[in-house]
Amino acid sequence: MNPFNPLTGPKVLAIFLAAFGIVIAVNLVMARQAIATFPGLEVANSYVASQTFDTDRSAQAALGWRAAAGFERGLLTIAFRTEGGHPAPVAALEATVGRPTHARDDVTPEFDYLAGRFEAPVALAPGLWHVRVRATAIDGTEFRQRLTLSVREGAQ
Q1: Could you tell me the residue range of the domain that residue 63 belongs to?
Q2: Total tally of structural domains belonging to the chain
Q3: What is the pLDDT of residues 71-106, one digit of tens each?
Q4: pTM listed for this prediction
Q5: Which residues pair with 25 in a beta bridge?
Q6: CA spacing 20 to 30 A to 66: which of 11, 20, 31, 40?
Q7: With contact defined as beta carbons under 8 Å apart, do 73 and 155 qualify?
């Protein structure tokens, strides 16, 4: 093919269709990947959840609790502290540990309370994990928080 041949209508059409075909193919692949790895919704009905959001947030803030998660040698720890730095009076704890990008690795460990913190043996691979915590105070107030946990190689 001679590079000095004139650019004709069929050539322009072929270039146009090839360029947009590549863009459309990449978009379809990326959309399929996004849908296949979506972990799900945070709440079933966002409108219903929004009706009590401010009240729930104020009650949780009034507790004055701070939560922190850690992972070392196969042991997941979650510590709740009051504003004064003392262990918070947690009546019940539920937590789900999972990857931020998909739900297939989600686990719900059984925690034991020991020395001011909750502990549970869990097998976590290296990488980023989210710990979705739901604790209940003695008076029934719910404390919900999502904690980010980074597991290093060799911490299992």
Answers
A1: 46-151
A2: 2
A3: 998 899 999 999 999 999 999 999 999 998 877 889
A4: 0.70
A5: none
A6: 40
A7: yes
